[in-house]
Design goal:
Blueprint (H helix, E strand, L loop, with lengths): L15 H4 L18 H18 L11 H9 L11 H8 L3 H11 L10 H14 L3 H9 L12 E5 L2 H17 L2 H12 L40 H29 L6 E5 L6 H18 L9 H15 L1
Parallel strand pairs: 1-2
Helix pairs in contact: 2-3, 5-6, 8-10, 11-12
């Protein structure tokens, strides 16, 4: 969502101060009235990564919360990205007849191989298309041309984790700080400027921090009424903020599930660092991560599954050698 212009507060974009002079790429560049697919993102990101590595000699750091976008960069595989499909989208397709589903699939993928009665496979392809913006038959051809587990670039996945209570407390606090930073005013101005020229069911309009307030902005006849101008103590606005917190926590859980189910078993090098205790940041987070990056830059990453315990042992060994 941070690729779209606007909604700096709602999408928690790093401020200029937070960036500390470090260039950030593919941020704040997509027209919010349009939609960018994972396929388009993949090409833009790989072009930028290649430029930084080859022309600039710099090590890119890919940061994100939408893990299937990152996964597409690691393995160049888009066939399993549809696990993030929302329940609402699922229900919308499920409500259609098999004949209607097949017709929709033919519109976006004329080369699809399914029989008109294969409802389950048709549904799966439609969901895949809505997530990627690419015809499933095209994705399969790409998949067959490249081994799924062949990583495109040497990489290390760094998982910043913490215990569940700490995570939820931090997320709730972040929402409160977003309100202080002008979340309601930002949403209202954004909706006024772009809603009439956009599809509110797609793209940036599904961002957590925006979508929860949409019902407050129009009446029963879908006329804009600007209710977000009301005080944040208004009951409806308070309820919307509660939904933002709940949706954020649920999204964080899905992120963790994705890492455990999709990355841990496949990625070559992954380090999990526990950020629960900020007073131990240097020992528990900073030093282990710096060791990993140094090995990556030197080309000396061990051919073993990297984890936190391993790098604690590495750190101890390095200290012993230096001592």
């Amino acid at each position: 969502m941070q690729m779209y212009r606007g909604l700096n507060v709602a999408t928690a974009k790093a401020t200029e101060e937070e960036r500390e002079g470090v260039p950030h790429h593919l941020l704040d560049f997509v027209d919010p009235r349009k939609e960018i697919s994972i396929h388009e993102f993949n090409k833009l990101a790989m072009d930028k990564i290649s430029f930084l590595l080859n022309a600039s000699g710099k090590l890119p750091i890919v940061v994100g919360g939408t893990h299937y976008y990152i996964q597409s960069l690691i393995w160049n595989s888009l066939l399993d990205v549809n696990v993030n499909y929302s329940e609402e989208d699922h229900d919308n397709l499920e409500a259609l007849s098999t004949e209607e589903l097949y017709k929709k699939l033919l519109e976006v993928d004329p080369d699809q191989p399914h029989h008109p009665n294969q409802r389950k496979r048709i549904l799966s392809d439609l969901r895949l298309y809505q997530e990627t913006g690419v015809a499933p038959s095209v994705l399969r051809k790409q998949q067959n041309a490249k081994r799924d587990n062949e990583e495109q670039l040497d990489n290390v996945v760094i998982w910043l984790s913490c215990n569940e209570k700490t995570l939820n407390d931090r997320l709730d606090h972040r929402v409160d700080k977003m309100v202080e930073a002008g979340l309601l005013e930002e949403n209202l101005n954004f909706i006024k400027q772009f809603l009439n020229e956009s599809n509110p069911d797609r793209g940036v309009w599904q961002a957590i921090g925006l979508k929860e307030f949409m019902p407050l902005c129009w009446d029963a006849e879908h006329h804009f009424n600007g209710r977000l101008e009301l005080s944040q103590h208004d009951e409806d606005v308070k309820n919307a903020l509660d939904r933002v917190k709940k949706d954020t926590q649920q999204y964080a859980k899905r992120q963790i599930t994705w890492i455990r189910n999709r990355l841990l078993s496949r990625v070559k090098h992954l380090i999990q660092v526990d950020t629960s205790q900020l007073d131990r940041w240097e020992d528990v987070v900073q030093r282990p991560v710096e060791n990993v990056v140094e090995h990556l830059l030197d080309g000396t990453l061990p051919d073993v599954k990297v984890n936190h315990a391993f790098w604690e042992q590495q750190s101890a060994s390095l200290e012993a050698e230096e001592g």
